[in-house]
Design brief:
By secondary structure, this protein is an all-beta fold. It is built from no helices and 21 strands. It starts with a strand and ends in a 36-residue tail after the last strand.
Length: 294
């Protein structure tokens, strides 16, 4: 056995390093081409050096080792970074948590300061900086906050979606409702697949039973706007082609068509001026044509 730094080597070749940055190096003149040394902050950590003297740490704990293959791919907990589906290449970074059951923290990215408005940022994108970023940390008052956004080719980051206090904000970093949308032209688009399904929002008071549906194609296939109650009956209907409004009917034939299918004695339309003031105008409804007769 050969020993360097030890008089009792137990291996074929053994180097004992008593301080950081002591180990085996390959030099070209005064320049390090490659090297291997120890790191005192972690007894199970090795340090690799490149030609510029930059360090790469490799550690091993409880059998969970870091691995760098000859293609530059990195595996943690695995010595075989998985191939990307449908390609012949391998992923550059692969973490395997093993066969542990339940929720497992596979990776963690932390920022520096434990202070208000301190966040860690992870960027995924092209080499020209275009892509996606994830920013997460704490807001004022130690409130957790997370943001998804996009980066431009100049590296500028634009927030798109923010998660705060259980609320989701799109275009705003301070959502005050479960879903808050803010934009110069604030449209929310919902588009169905195919032509045989409804496209609607469902509202419930919290009992789990749907109280109202608002959308298109709920009762009949088409693009008419409908408000449907929990019994499946259309209570309000606007025909897209004519603009006619129907109450109690899905086929309004007039600008306002009110229909009630129960006995004729029932009140269909009730208009009431509830003001009790003596000077109040008693007019409840006016019906007028464009001609002379009212």
């Amino acid at each position: 056995n050969v020993g360097i730094g030890t008089t009792g080597p137990s291996q074929k070749f053994q180097v004992d390093a008593s301080a950081d940055d002591q180990g085996a190096y390959v030099y070209s003149g005064a320049t390090i081409l490659a090297g291997l040394s120890r790191e005192s902050t972690d007894a199970a950590k090795l340090v690799l050096y490149d030609a510029g003297g930059a360090k790469t740490f490799i550690s091993s704990h409880a059998g969970q080792s870091s691995y760098i293959n000859n293609g530059g791919n990195v595996g943690i907990g695995t010595t075989n970074p998985l191939a990307i589906t449908g390609t012949a290449t391998t992923t550059k970074f692969h973490v395997n948590a093993g066969a542990a059951a339940g929720d497992v923290e596979v990776a963690r990215f932390e920022g520096g300061a434990d202070a208000d408005n301190a966040r860690a940022i992870v960027r995924i994108g092209h080499s020209n900086d275009r892509g996606l970023f994830i920013k997460a940390g704490v807001q004022v008052g130690d409130t957790p906050i997370a943001t998804l956004g996009l980066t431009s080719n100049a590296g500028a980051m634009t927030d798109i979606m923010t998660f705060l206090n259980g609320n989701v904000g799109i275009g705003t970093t301070s959502p005050a409702r479960p879903l808050s949308v803010k934009a110069n032209h604030s449209y929310i688009r919902s588009e169905r697949l195919g032509t045989t399904y409804e496209n609607a929002f469902e509202l419930t008071y919290g009992s789990g039973t749907i109280d109202w549906r608002i959308g298109t194609g709920i009762i009949a296939v088409g693009s008419d706007l409908e408000i449907v109650n929990n019994a499946g009956a259309s209570t309000f209907h606007i025909t897209q082609s004519s603009g006619n409004v129907g109450i109690g009917t899905t086929a309004p034939g007039y600008l306002l068509d009110v229909t009630k299918s129960s006995p004729a004695a029932d009140i269909v339309l009730h208009v009431n001026n509830s003001s009790a003031a003596a000077s109040a105008n008693g007019t409840a409804i006016i019906i007028r044509s464009t001609g002379e007769n009212n």
